């Protein structure tokens, strides 16, 4: 009976450690990112990052590559046909 209890305790500790070092860390990372949306500094940082990305996108000559252009063109034509906006 004593061996059974020791095995259960060792297994429980091992499962807790494995969970904490694998899935638990991912949960902590996700929680930190979510918390940044709720703080004033976090929202400011998000706005700053968005402004940087918009400036970088405005400096590009072409936003889309050839494949993306074809996909969007076909999608828009299909929607126009469905709506009858010919």
Question: Can you offer a commentary on this structure?
Answer:
The structure is a single chain. The chain is mostly helical and 86 residues long. The chain has one domain. 86% of the residues lie in helices and 0% in strands. It is built from four helices and no strands. Helix 2 crosses helix 3. The longest helix has 20 residues. The model has no long low-confidence stretch (mean pLDDT 89).
Features:
86 residues, elongated, 4 helices, mainly alpha
Short summary:
By secondary structure, this protein is mainly α.
Q: What does the overall shape look like? A: elongated
Structural class: mainly alpha
Low-confidence stretches: none
Largest sheet: none
The portion of residues forming beta strands comes to under 5%
Please tell me how large the radius of gyration is: 26 Å
Helix/strand order, N-terminal first: HHHH
Termini separation: 81 Å
Q: What's the arrangement of secondary structure elements?
A:
Blueprint: H1 2-21, H2 23-38, H3 40-59, H4 66-83
Helix pairs in contact: 2-3
């Amino acid at each position: 009976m004593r061996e059974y209890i020791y095995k259960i305790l060792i297994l429980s500790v091992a499962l807790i450690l494995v969970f904490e070092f694998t899935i638990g860390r991912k949960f902590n990372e996700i929680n930190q990112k979510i918390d940044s949306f709720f703080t004033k500094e976090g929202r400011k940082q998000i706005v700053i990052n968005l402004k940087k990305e918009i400036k970088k996108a405005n400096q590009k000559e072409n936003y889309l590559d050839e494949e993306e252009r074809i996909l969007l063109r076909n999608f828009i034509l299909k929607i126009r046909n469905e709506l009858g906006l010919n």
